Amino acid sequence: SQQGEEDPQALSIQEGENATMNCSYKTSINNLQWYRQNSGRGLVHLILIRSNEREKHSGRLRVTLDTSKKSSSLLITASRAADTASYFCAPRILTGGGNKLTFGTGTQLKVEL
Amino acid sequence: DAGITQSPRHKVTETGTPVTLRCHQTENHRYMYWYRQDPGHGLRLIHYSYGVKDTDKGEVSDGYSVSRSKTEDFLLTLESATSSQTSVYFCAISDGVGDEQYFGPGTRLTVT
After folding, report:
1. Which of A86, A93, B28, B49 could anchor a disulfide with A97, C-beta 3.0 to 4.6 Å?
2. Any idea what the CATH number is for the domain that residue A46 is in?
């Protein structure tokens, strides 16, 4: 499968702590995207990092990409209860994939007060 | 939020009946997608469209067909619904190749 695989499957932290989620993939990519899904809702795009980028920031989010290891990480700093959600990485494969993204099963993040 | 609506939002149907789900966008985006989401499987692509009347299969297309006669509408049809098609179905859109996708609110389909 060419899908991204998130690790860990579940993560529970206290409000104010940082949360780190990892993603691994198997083939060369054009870009890698991270999405959030609140319970019962559609996915929301968080950030896109291109294959020639190593790090990207957006507010409290920091994404890194290591194409040599075929891995990415999403860091959420100073987490809040509202960050409780599932997080998905979606690599866009470089060739033969058209515009298709492949999603893994996600990391379920719970931020407790 | 991107202007994407899905209808119906919830549907219960019987095995063997045809079902059509509708996705409607007001963003004039070129690409539209149908996914299903199941526990333990994540999000899987069923079909996608790269323009009016231009569609292609995803990884789980068996038992599904799609049509796109207008830029704004993408229909997903279950030709003869089976219990294995009980799922939450999401529509998504994107403007360009490789761009971020915007998702609709989902349709929860139960096949009894």
Report:
1. A93
2. 2.60.40.10
- At B99, is the pLDDT very low, low, confident or very high (cuts 50, 70, 90)? confident
For B99-104, what is the mean pLDDT?
93
Test the B interface: residue of A9, A35, A45, A49 with most B CBs within 10 Å: A45
CATH 2.60.40.10 fits B4-111, yes or no: yes
Q: By 3-state DSSP, what share of chain B in percent is helix, strand and coil, each rounded to 5?
A: 5, 60, 40
A3 touches chain B (CB under 8 A): yes
Instruction: Give the residue extent of every domain in chain B.
Output: 4-111
Which residues contact residue A4 at a Cβ distance below 8 angstroms, ignoring those fewer than 6 apart?
A: A23, A24, A25, A32, A72, A88, A89, A90, A91, A102, A103, A104
Contact residues, chain B, for A42 at CB < 8 Å: 90, 92, 103-106
User: Comparing C-alpha atoms, which of A88, A73, A83, A63 is closest to residue A15?
Assistant: A83
What secondary structure letter does DSSP report for B30?
S
Q: What is the mean pLDDT of residues A24-37?
A: 92
CB contact under 8 A, A100 and B90: no
Structural domain harbouring A100: 5-112
Out of A41, A45, A105, name the one closest to residue B102 (CB). A45
In total, how many domains does chain A have?
Answer: 1
- Tens of pLDDT, residues B4-43: 999 999 999 999 999 999 999 999 999 999 999 998 888 9
